[in-house]
Amino acid sequence: MTQSATLVTGAAGFIGYHVCRRLILAGETVVGIDNLNDYYDPQLKLDRLAELQKLNGDFTFHKCDFADHEALDTALFEHGFDRIIHLGAQAGVRYSIENPRVYVQSNLVGHLNILELARHRQINHMVYASSSSVYGQNAKIPFSVADRVDRPVSLYAATKKSDELISESYAHLYRIPLTGLRFFTVYGPWGRPDMAPWLFTEAILNGDPIKVFNHGKMRRDFTYIDDIVDGLMAVLASPPADNGQIKAGGSESPHALYNIGNNQSEELGHFIATIEAACGRKAEKIMMDMQPGDVPATYADIDDINRDMGYRPATSIDSGIPAFVNWYRGYKGL
Predict the structure, then answer these.
(1) Is position 156 annotated as part of the catalytic site?
(2) What digits encode the pLDDT tens for the residues 69-105?
(3) Is 204 inside a domain boundary?
(4) What's the rounded Cα separation, in Å, for the pair 296 and 105?
(5) Residue 281 lies in a domain
(6) Where is pLDDT greater, at 244 or 296?
């Protein structure tokens, strides 16, 4: 067995890449797994991994589908680790409408497999990715972890809420310290090509039209990747105590839930204008109806994570979007 390490699932993904990078630069031993699926171009994932290898840190990567428990056990047999950051999942709201079985396999079966790994390895702390999508049709703004979240409008959201429930049962039964993070619209360099910052930037620079859903009557809590990683690192270092006290999210077990967002709900029009300014050209807009599974607004109440971890995001879209556009130009050689 090698020395203790942090296991990061979804290591070749957007958030996973940045988390691995932060850990490696801090001198930590990191074991990364990812199945490198083709939900979006796997070359981007391979390019992220290549960047991590350039750091010359203590980083080991295995291509592995964590929904296959035998493959997972085989890949990790020789590795010791006492913390897990479980970011791997089948992402995307709209794709879940077309391919529901993929979501159940990755987000439910896969999540259970990682919890079983945490149980049998007696992990000190497992931090896992939930999503702001669990709030569904919640009309109360901003969204609080104390709000009811039993009206999901997509299967993706339902799987993420299910992950929280399964985690609660494991924390109760096995006293495993678990923390779920409800991410709010994460963006930044090395971001996902299926999300609005990439789609809009690509279209505007190519002179193509962009689709503006719900006729522009949308608001999102856009959260810059560096702020996400800052919050995640603070949470990782502070596992919930098994002291019977009620945690953020309402659990009496060692299981906490936090929103992690920018605490600023931006109008879609302002967001587009910020991308236009960074690209140096105007967008041609095609107004569309709301898509199935989507919601008109997201807005994170971050009082709990601010109180417990001192988390306070520092990056507005006015600086974060230009940083993404500059990265995109460099990545695409524009």
Answers:
(1) yes
(2) 999 999 999 999 999 999 999 987 778 888 899 999 9
(3) no
(4) 28
(5) no
(6) 244
Q: What is the pLDDT of residues 293-310, one digit of tens each?
A: 677 788 899 999 999 999
Task: List the domain range (segments joined by +) for residue 37.
Answer: 6-190+224-262+299-314
* Within-domain flag for 174: yes
Q: What is the chain's mean pLDDT, rounded?
A: 94
The CB-side HSE value for 66 (13 A sphere, CA atoms) comes to: 29
Q: Which helix (H) or strand (E) holds 304?
A: helix 303-309
The verdict on pTM exceeding 0.90 is: yes
Q: Which two tokens stand for residue 247?
A: 């945690």
Closest CA to 252 of 171, 308, 174: 171
Phi, psi of 187 (to 5 degrees): -145, 165
How many independent structural domains does the chain possess?
Answer: 1
CA distance 256 to 177: 8
Rounded Cα gap, residues 274 and 281, in angstroms: 11
Distance CA 192, CA 199 (A): 9
Q: Is residue 332 part of a domain?
A: no
Phi-psi domain of 195 (left: phi exceeds 0; alpha: psi -120 through 50; beta: other):
beta
| Alpha-carbon distances of 176 from 76, 181, 199, 258, 259, rounded to whole Å | 19, 16, 39, 17, 20
Question: Which of 40, 128, 156, 258 does the annotation list as catalytic?
Answer: 156
CB atoms within 10 A of CB 206: 9
